[in-house]
């Protein structure tokens, strides 16, 4: 074993050459690390933590995030984000950041930490703080915050509020159930990617092995400060709307706008953004943070959530409704008639706004957007629709790539409600998306071009929408002998290959000539897309068609093509296709 920093009570002790020691520590790899699984035979310490027995760190990776179970009590879901695991992950991020920034010993790096409303938030925030402080970095806690605010903290330049942060960590698991939690990481370059997360987890595994060897106990963090950064973030949103309306102090005066935060972190939007702009917010609901999410899932894609905000708009005769997910990086709206502005409609609306500002620009979306949206963007708005892959980071990175090769793009947006604009540093910010809508309302009234949400609804006039739109999930049984030793990903790719080949010989169906994910096919007036899930042993099947009958015809074509794959559970498709 190489020399490790001395260990004291669950913390790594640091000397003047701490960054060098951390790099040595995290580059250290032994048999444990190579297997990514760690076993504990160490004697018990003052803090009994049974989950130290075994941890597979790489299983905590969820694309460009880290997610796990943080609260016990749900059958079949043992806690994976324990305090020592969390502390090791935070120390792994600190080590990664030290390598990334390569600062000299004269300056200490600074990391900001925020969290959503989950019931495990405080416990994990404390563990993250210990992990960051153990590396000799300064910790700045924001408490309840939004994911976009955490990224912004790496850009704000104001030493009075300890900004900019060199790195930021948001403790959240988006819309997942109350027992889950996780982490998102940022620097001034944006959110970390998949390779960065893998690197951090491997570093965390090495640190965790040191916990196992030396024992673990909780010790209070030093160098921790607290800042109300959300006051700065919300002030910037207010300024953006005022500027769009010609510097009017209360450009939304008289507008009645209700907010549904789903008991997540987005409750600030009513009192801290809308009311200073003059809006009436009575009837807003579920603004209080409650990590048990007692009213509905904070998710703009969830039918119950959208029904709740729609009903609030109608009951209060409001001009507009706004809904956020748990950590406010996704959003949607509802107009005064109760018409939902989410998924394809929200993309169409944002495309209309952006293409007014940047004529001809490319709009990057995920793979499940409709053919009607393509027609709307390209034929009505005069833009270009670049349909890419699922995953908000994939969509954002593709827009950045297009700009780098000379193809102008100003909007990257998913049907899930993740939307990022070039003008906002390519950050997927649900609050900023809603500010763009508010800008439109305010500027239209200031210029005498209209009032109320009809201004927004008119922008999506002409968007062709299917009568039927469904998503069916075809699960792969990983224990089925038909896999023949293959991974679920290899098996899923074989299904897609076979489907693509079978479609090629059918004159009634047309395979998409430009497609970046799965198999997309047009026919019977509609289309379907079968793709492999980013993380799970599932093949989601999206179907859109002008009638249920046509949707069933498309579904039956898929069913016939994949029937020989016995490990694929097609029961959801079979049920949908029943007469």
Structure description:
- The protein is an alpha+beta fold and 579 residues long.
- The protein folds into three domains: 38-227, 3-Layer(aba) Sandwich (Alpha-D-Glucose-1,6-Bisphosphate, Chain A, domain 3), CATH 3.40.120; 232-459, Alpha-D-Glucose-1,6-Bisphosphate, Chain A, domain 3 (3-Layer(aba) Sandwich), CATH 3.40.120.10; 468-577, Alpha-D-phosphohexomutase, C-terminal domain (TATA-Binding Protein, 2-Layer Sandwich), CATH 3.30.310.50.
- It has 17 helices and 27 strands.
- Strands 5, 6, 7, 8, 9, 10, 11 and 12 form an eight-stranded mixed β-sheet that branches.
- A hairpin with a 4-residue loop joins β15 (331-335) and β16.
- The chain is globular.
Helix coverage percent of residues? 25-40%
Indicate the radius of gyration in whole angstroms.
Answer: 25 Å
Q: How many separate structural domains?
A: 3
Measured distance between first and last alpha carbons: 66 Å
Mean pLDDT: 90
The CATH architecture of the largest domain would be 3-Layer(aba) Sandwich
Q: Helical segment tally?
A: 17
> What is the CATH H-level superfamily of the largest domain?
Alpha-D-Glucose-1,6-Bisphosphate, subunit A, domain 3
Counting DSSP E segments of at least 2 residues, the number of strands comes to 27
User: Unreliable segments (pLDDT under 50, ≥5 consecutive)?
Assistant: 1-51
Overall spatial form = globular
CATH domain class name of the largest domain: Alpha Beta
- Structural class, judged by helices and strands? alpha+beta
> Biggest sheet: strands, sense, closure?
8 strands, mixed
GO molecular function: metal ion binding; phosphoglucomutase activity; phosphomannomutase activity
Subunit structure: Monomer.
GO biological process, one term: glucose metabolic process
Pfam families: PGM_PMM_I (PF02878), PGM_PMM_II (PF02879), PGM_PMM_III (PF02880)
């Amino acid at each position: 074993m190489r020399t490790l920093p001395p260990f004291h009570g669950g913390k790594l002790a640091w000397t003047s050459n701490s960054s060098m020691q951390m790099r040595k520590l995290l580059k250290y790899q032994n048999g444990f690390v190579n297997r990514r699984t760690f076993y504990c035979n160490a004697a018990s310490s003052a803090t009994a933590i049974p989950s130290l027995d075994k941890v597979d760190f790489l299983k905590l990776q969820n694309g460009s995030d880290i997610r796990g179970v943080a609260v016990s009590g749900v059958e079949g879901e043992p806690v994976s984000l324990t305090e020592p695991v969390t502390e090791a992950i935070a120390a792994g991020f600190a080590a990664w950041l030290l390598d990334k920034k390569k600062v000299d010993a004269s300056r200490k790096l600074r990391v900001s930490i925020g969290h959503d409303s989950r019931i495990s938030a405080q416990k994990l925030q404390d563990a993250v703080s210990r992990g960051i402080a153990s590396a000799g970095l300064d910790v700045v806690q924001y408490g309840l915050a939004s994911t976009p605010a955490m990224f912004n903290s790496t850009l704000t330049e104001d030493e009075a509020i300890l900004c900019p942060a060199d790195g930021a960590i948001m403790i959240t698991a988006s819309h997942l159930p109350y027992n889950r939690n996780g982490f998102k990481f940022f620097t001034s370059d944006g959110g970390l990617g998949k390779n960065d997360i893998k690197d951090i987890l491997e570093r965390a595994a090495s640190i965790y092995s040191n916990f196992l060897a030396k024992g673990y106990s909780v010790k209070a963090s030093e160098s921790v400060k607290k800042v109300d950064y959300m006051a700065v973030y919300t002030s910037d949103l207010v300024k953006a709307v005022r500027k769009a309306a010609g510097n009017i102090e209360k450009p939304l005066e008289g507008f009645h706008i209700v907010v549904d935060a789903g008991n997540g972190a987005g409750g600030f939007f009513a009192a801290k953004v809308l009311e200073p702009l003059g809006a009436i917010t009575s009837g807003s609901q579920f603004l209080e943070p409650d990590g048990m999410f007692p009213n509905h899932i904070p998710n703009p894609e969830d039918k119950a959530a959208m029904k709740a905000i729609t009903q609030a708009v109608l009951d209060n005769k409001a001009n507009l409704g706004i809904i956020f997910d748990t950590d406010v990086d996704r959003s949607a709206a509802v107009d005064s008639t109760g018409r939902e502005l989410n998924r394809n409609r929200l993309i169409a609306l944002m495309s209309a706004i952006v293409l007014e500002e940047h004529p001809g620009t490319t709009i990057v979306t995920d793979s499940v957007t409709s053919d009607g949206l393509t027609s709307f963007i390209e034929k009505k708005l005069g833009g270009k629709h670049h349909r890419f892959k699922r995953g908000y980071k994939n969509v954002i990175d593709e827009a950045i790539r297009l700009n780098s090769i000379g193809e102008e793009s100003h909007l990257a947006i998913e049907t899930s409600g993740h939307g990022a604009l070039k003008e906002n540093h390519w950050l997927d910010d649900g609050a900023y998306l809603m500010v763009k809508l508010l800008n439109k309302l305010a500027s239209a009234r200031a210029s005498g071009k209209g009032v109320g949400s009809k201004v927004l609804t008119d922008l999506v006039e002409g968007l062709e929408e299917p009568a039927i739109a469904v998503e069916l999930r075809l699960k792969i049984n990983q224990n089925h002998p038909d896999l023949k030793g293959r991974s679920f990903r290899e098996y899923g790719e074989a299904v897609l290959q076979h489907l693509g080949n079978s479609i090629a010989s059918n004159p009634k169906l047309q395979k998409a000539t430009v497609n970046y994910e799965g198999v997309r096919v047009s026919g019977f007036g509609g289309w379907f897309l079968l793709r492999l899930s980013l993380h799970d042993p599932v093949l989601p099947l999206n179907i859109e068609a002008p009638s249920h009958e046509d949707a069933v015809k498309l579904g039956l074509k898929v069913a016939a093509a994949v029937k020989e794959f016995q490990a694929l559970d097609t029961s959801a498709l079979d049920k949908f296709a029943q007469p």
